[in-house]
Design a protein that fits this description.
The protein is α/β, with parallel strands linked by helices. The protein has 2 domains: 209 residues, P-loop containing nucleotide triphosphate hydrolases (Rossmann fold, 3-Layer(aba) Sandwich); 210 residues, Rossmann fold (3-Layer(aba) Sandwich). The radius of gyration is 23 Å and the shape is elongated.
């Protein structure tokens, strides 16, 4: 489900379709194009299972196709929500990073969600342009959003039947501003911070049932190639348990990062820096993903037992990987300001974080490894995404930098801070961008535990 441009209503439409299929008793596999982590949280509630990111810039195309196959294989229906406009990617002449790239790589027909406010015949012209723009991308049909009345819907259907009879009109969604998702300083509100009201998903499912051709949507066939034969890994290796922070303060992690850790031989164990007094038993490594520690600074600071537990683990040489919110949690703490109270955190890195009124960083990043870490040799690279409104103080020179960071070939500087076996960064790396990352981290955890 893609759109000509952002703001067309594809998130609401995708959630409505997921919720309706789930209510019908179908197993729904949700996906999100691009690096976004807000929409997948809502997908999880609507579909009843984790949503998976598909990103053709961060990850090789073969990995994107593999990811879709793995997560869609056991579902009755797969729903992929696009990002920005259908063909909008990293540049003006490439599909890299676009919804169109994901559709082409995974063999997915496109349902175009069009904001029809103020349009009738022009809507068909718009759809015709998108349908014929690139032969690698097949538009199967359209959903019109923001339809003003029944007569407006009839006009839209009539012009499509006349001008594009080969494309299905899967429905017309009436205007309903009450179903929008509130905005917040990082784009939208996370589902943890803005849990839907009890009837929200029911209203979305009703919206789809009453206005969309769900049978027609479910009838769009997707060819999923069979999985390659499973290859047994090395036997008799020491079990590895990696503690992963999962709570409202640490709510963002690429689901495939966890999958790749499991495939590398790790047992992933969730814990909460907000609520738990200590790390899970018998863990050999820690993963502190992104989130919003600034919103929970007081509670994180008050949990002295957990802070001490994490600090002791780092000092003992346990491998720790932290990104964005995880990095902030490992600093001395938060400075007060911009609605955030001052708070003391774990204190591994001798700087403090400050929230800013304006966004500090947004966009894709490439990381070239400058030094050896956990089995990942210098000279390797990985890709990820950076998105935050905070900044940290000047990191002292004695703290090692493991990353050389660039954006579309422009060198941004050194980052990836290392203390003992703890590596922390503002960048959310996707382990699918370098298939050696997860095995290297698991191997380092196994070595520590042996």
């Amino acid at each position: 489900m893609a759109a000509p441009q952002s703001g067309s209503g594809k998130t609401t439409a995708a959630l409505a379709v997921m919720a309706a299929f789930k209510r019908r008793g179908m197993a729904v596999a949700p996906f999100k194009c691009g690096p976004d982590f807000i929409d997948p949280g809502y997908h999880r509630l609507a579909a009843g299972r984790p949503s998976v990111n598909l990103d053709g810039w961060m990850c090789p195309e073969a990995f994107v196709a593999e990811t879709f196959r793995i997560h869609a294989a056991d579902a009755d229906v797969a729903v992929v929500e696009g990002v920005m406009g259908l063909f909008d990617g990293l540049g003006s002449t490439t599909m890299e990073g676009s919804s169109a790239q994901v559709a082409a790589v995974c063999g997915l027909p496109v349902v175009l969600v069009v904001n029809a406010r103020g349009m009738a015949a022009s809507a068909a012209a718009l759809v015709k342009g998108f349908a014929g723009y690139d032969q690698r991308v097949r538009v199967a049909g359209v959903i019109f959003n923001n339809v003003g009345s029944d007569s407006h819907g009839r006009l839209l259907r009539q012009t499509m039947a006349t001008e594009l009879p080969e494309l299905a009109v899967f429905g017309c969604i009436p205007r309903d501003d009450s179903l929008g998702i509130p905005s917040r300083h990082l784009g939208l509100v996370t589902v943890e911070d803005n849990p839907p009201t009890p009837d929200y998903l029911e209203r979305l499912a009703d919206l789809a049932e009453n206005n969309l051709d769900l049978a027609g949507l479910a009838g769009i066939e997707i060819q999923i190639p069979p999985a390659p034969p499973f290859l047994e890994g090395e036997g008799n290796l020491m079990p590895v348990r990696i503690a992963v922070a999962r709570d409202p303060a640490f709510c963002f992690v690429y689901e495939d990062n966890l999958r790749l850790l499991r495939e590398a031989g790790a047992e992933v164990v969730a814990f909460s820096p907000l609520d738990d007094a200590r790390l899970p038993d018998q863990v050999h490594g820690i993963y502190l993903p992104g989130g919003y520690p600034e919103l929970y600074a007081g509670r994180l600071a008050a949990n002295s037992a957990m802070k001490t537990n994490v600090q002791n683990a780092v000092e003992a040489g346990m491998p720790v990987y932290a990104e964005c919110g995880g990095l902030i949690y490992l600093t001395l703490g938060m400075e007060g300001g911009e609605g955030t109270s001052s708070a003391d955190f774990v204190g591994i890195f001798p700087v403090r974080a400050t929230m800013l009124a304006k966004r500090k960083a947004l966009g894709y990043r490439q990381v070239d490894f400058e030094s050896y870490y956990g089995g990942t040799a210098a000279g390797g690279s990985a890709r990820g995404h950076e998105f935050h409104y905070s900044e940290i103080g000047a990191m002292p020179d004695h703290v090692e930098r493991c990353y050389r960071v660039s954006r579309q070939g422009l060198l941004l500087g050194a980052e990836g801070y290392r203390y003992r076996n703890c590596l922390a960064s503002y960048i959310h790396l996707h382990f699918g961008s370098n298939r050696g990352l997860a095995p290297a981290f698991v191997a380092a955890c196994r070595k520590h535990g042996s």
